[in-house]
Write a structure and sequence with these properties.
323 residues, 7-stranded mixed β-sheet, EC 2.1.1.-
Length: 323
């Protein structure tokens, strides 16, 4: 593990009590609009924006890499990524510029990391970002590919129909050699042509990705994640929690649903309470191992003021041993 003890020691998850925060927010009249039921606008008042194009534009705008920091807390929060066996396959969903992929690759040099995103431009930047890091044997272990998992699902080369339906009795011919090198351009195509798959994955990381998916699509997206996990596999989730400071900055006219908001650039965010997370994942077939708000206080100093950012919610779940 390459993350230093000093970096690991800086990680906190209980800087404040979420229940105290809830009471503070719900008693503040200026924030009451966040608590109100959402009334859908009339069809002629609705503004239609393509969420995929919105996120593509977002990542292009922030392509310098300064906006997203490497998520060094991940291995402290999810040590399973460090302790898993050689050749374990990890699927990073919504990889963005690689800020989640890089610490995973650093933390375990035996992991094979598949990373998907709905933007080819973003994937190329992620590949450049990871390769520039000089992580050991990264060219063999980092395999980015295009995928809009929430609408089209994962490609069959990741897990074929046979594997998805019968993970308990895999056909050895459906499992590829994890040491086989593939490039960004040929990864999915060559696998599809051979009509085989890699046999599913051992871990899925879903880090600040599900919140960008409209609430009505989330059940389908999570069932798709469940379908490509091996029996006993784990999904590691972290995302925006209810009453996060990001949520409280949205204005009333930016609400597009209950706890759902849209930024001016068309990107979307949902803010989860624990019950919503639990219900979504259990209905998709997962069993719960751990769920909690990670109440983290990040201090940023500005001239004349101090701004605190609070980022709640983590969830650790496991696919059932049999379907």
């Amino acid at each position: 593990m390459s993350v230093s003890a000093a970096e690991a020691a800086e990680y906190h998850s209980k800087d404040f009590d979420w229940e105290t925060l809830r009471q503070e927010i719900e008693k503040d009249p200026s924030l009451s609009y966040h608590l109100l039921p959402f009334v859908s606008p009339q069809p002629e008042q609705q503004v239609s924006k393509d969420p995929i194009k919105a996120w593509q534009s977002f990542h292009i705008q922030h392509s310098s890499g300064k906006f997203f920091k490497e998520r060094r807390y991940l291995l402290k929060e999810f040590p399973e990524l460090v302790s898993c066996g050689d050749g374990s396959k990890v699927l990073e969903v919504g990889c963005g510029n690689g800020s989640t992929a890089l610490p995973i690759l650093r933390g375990n040099d035996k992991i094979i990391l598949y990373a998907c995103d709905c933007s080819d431009e973003t994937l190329q930047r992620a590949k450049e970002f990871v390769v520039a890091s000089n992580v050991a044997s990264v060219e063999h272990r980092f395999r980015p590919f295009y995928c809009d998992f929430a609408t089209t699902g994962f490609p069959k080369w990741l897990a074929c129909d046979y594997c998805r339906e019968n993970f308990g009795q895999k056909d050895p011919n459906c499992i590829s050699d994890v040491k086989e090198e593939r490039t960004l351009e040929t990864d999915s195509g060559s696998m599809e042509e051979r009509s085989c798959c890699i046999g599913g994955v051992d871990f899925i990381t879903l880090i600040f990705t599900l919140s960008a998916v409209p609430l009505q699509i989330m059940p389908t997206a999570l069932r798709e994640c469940f379908s490509v996990l091996k029996p006993g596999g784990m999904l590691l989730f972290r995302d925006y929690g209810l009453y996060d400071m990001t949520m409280l900055r949205f204005e009333p006219d930016q609400r597009v649903g209950f706890r759902e908001y849209m930024r001016s650039d068309g990107t979307h965010s949902y803010f989860f309470c624990l019950d919503t997370v639990r219900n979504l994942f259990i209905c998709a077939g997962f069993i719960e191992l751990e769920i909690e708000y990670c109440c983290v206080k990040n201090l940023h100093k500005f001239i004349g003021q101090q701004l605190y950012l609070r980022i709640p919610t983590k969830y650790l779940i496991q696919v059932l041993d049999s379907f």
